[in-house]
Specification:
Blueprint lengths: L1 E6 L10 H16 L2 E5 H9 L7 E5 L5 H9 L11 E5 L10 H13 L3 E2 L2 H14 L8 H6 L6 E6 L4 H10 L1 H5 L3 E4 L1 H13 L10 E2 L7 H10 L5 E5 L9 H14 L3 E3 L2 H13 L3
Helix pairs in contact: 1-5, 3-4, 5-12, 7-9, 10-11
């Protein structure tokens, strides 16, 4: 497997930076997976300076040289089949102005379009390595931090879907009803939440007892309400099925929720059905 790797300056600074914490926690697992990391300049140089993962790193160039732009192309397939990347670890600082540059926005969009993992937080990067390890039959290599993220009984999950993907969200929740029911709490935006509650009652959830707590619909502020839960560290996972093909009137609210996830670093976010299904199937078979 080949993943892109990038990190904003905040996540590269200091001896206990997010990038270094991730590399140290996940190094045995990354080696067991044989995963190569096609890294932009800052991430590459930070790891090389600490002699971490150096044999797994492939330099893509600095931002000024188009490193992140090349990563976008390679998520889309690159100029040749050998160039294609399988996913991206991008530790995002939402206050960094480059987070709204076209290449940063395009990177996530192409990951969503092609159903490839886009992981933007420290917790998410650790968890996705754990998912890859479990899927490869290498659960013994999962770091302690990854095992902790799989302990969902005390956590809250948010379930959000754009109009074109609401059916996909209901189907996902129905297929993985038992896993999602293990969460201490489930929250959702308005219409999605209504449909999810209907699904749960049809599955035998006590009639009249909400399976999910419904907030406002997205255009009326539901994304912002869930963002506040994230900021208060009362929501540990966001499963957000995004439709990248339509203009969205409440785009600012959507970006607000994503920025809240990146602000805490302790929340994971899965933006596509492909990622969500793979994560849920991992939890079904997970045996620590």
């Amino acid at each position: 497997m080949k993943f892109g790797l990038a990190a904003h300056r905040l996540h590269r600074l200091g001896p206990d930076s997010s990038l270094l914490r991730w590399a140290r926690a996940c190094e045995p697992g990354l080696r067991a997976l044989g995963l190569s990391l096609h890294a932009t300049g800052g991430a590459h140089d930070t790891l090389a300076s600490k002699q971490l993962l150096t044999d797994l790193l492939v330099p893509l160039g600095n931002g000024r040289d188009g490193g992140l732009m090349r990563m976008v192309s390679r998520i889309a397939g690159g100029l040749a089949p050998a160039d294609a990347l399988d996913g991206v670890f991008f530790l995002v600082d939402p206050v960094d102005p480059t987070s709204i540059y076209p290449e940063a926005q395009a990177l996530k969009r192409e990951c969503v379009i092609h159903g490839k993992p886009y992981v933007a937080t420290l917790a998410g990067a650790i968890e996705w390595v754990a998912v890859e390890l479990a899927d490869a039959g290498l659960a013994a290599q999962i770091p302690a931090e990854g095992h902790a993220l799989f302990q969902i009984e005390s956590q809250t999950v948010a379930l959000v879907a754009h109009d074109a993907l609401k059916d996909a969200m209901v189907a996902f929740a129905s297929e993985h009803f038992e896993v999602l029911s293990r969460y201490a709490e489930r929250v959702a935006t308005g219409t999605t939440g209504s449909r999810l509650n209907g699904m749960a009652w049809s599955r035998g959830w006590p009639a009249g007892t909400p399976w999910v707590t419904r907030y406002q619909s997205g255009p009326l502020g539901g994304d912002a309400q869930i963002a506040e839960l994230v900021l208060d560290q009362r929501c540990q996972k966001v499963i957000f099925f995004e439709d990248p093909h339509v203009a969205r009137q409440h785009e600012a609210d959507i970006q607000l929720l994503e920025r809240a996830v990146c602000s805490t670093g302790n929340t994971t976010c899965y933006n596509t059905p492909t990622m969500a299904h793979r994560w849920a199937r991992t939890l079904i078979s997970y045996n620590p």
